[in-house]
Amino acid sequence: MLRLVGFFVLAAFLYKVLGHLPWIGPVFEQTGIFGILISAALISAVLTHWGERMFVARKLRSDLRALAEVGNAYNQGKMGALYLARGRARAALVHLEEAARGEPEVAEWHYRLGLARLATRDPARALVAFDRCVELEEEHAYGAAQMRRAECLLRLGRAEDSLAALTLFERNHGPSPEGAYRRALALRALGRRAEARAAFGEVGELARRATRYQRRSAGWWALRANFSRFV
Prior knowledge:
Blueprint: H1 2-19, H2 24-29, H3 33-68, H4 73-85, H5 89-102, H6 107-119, H7 123-136, H8 144-155, H9 159-173, H10 177-189, H11 193-208, H12 215-228
């Protein structure tokens, strides 16, 4: 009961604060009880988001403690993957490096290590990890290792090699919005501007044909292509 009362007191306080803000204030003054309800909804959304973050953080700590009890290469890899999945690439690096050393024949650890290095802006060492990954398993992660390898090559100024890697990816998996986008960048870097413009245009067409579960990411690549073609 006290929590409920406290919640509505906080909502009323937020309502008063918003009522004193320029632009928003005059509108809120006319909403009356609906303004308080809007304030309550805002607080509820913030508390829900904060609660979800706290739950994820507690689960991460619990999972990491359980994995740390047995310090083998497999558990190091799982710890690194957990950190990486939560956007903590630097924290993931040491664990994934240990996993790759301990189980050098496992393509997954090299792939995850490459992602962590790429996320920490180390494309040269990321390329080493992706090269080892595709050497062990060319189609690892449904070809994603090949795509990331092409990205590394382009970042390192090796546009010709990047284009060759993308050609291999598209031969094995067919065209994709990301593949067309990165192909356009490589072609532009090689001075093949007419082909690059055509590839940028291809991104939008591929995005429109994307399946439902791919539409969000496909739309992102189409947006980037529309921007990049004029830069």
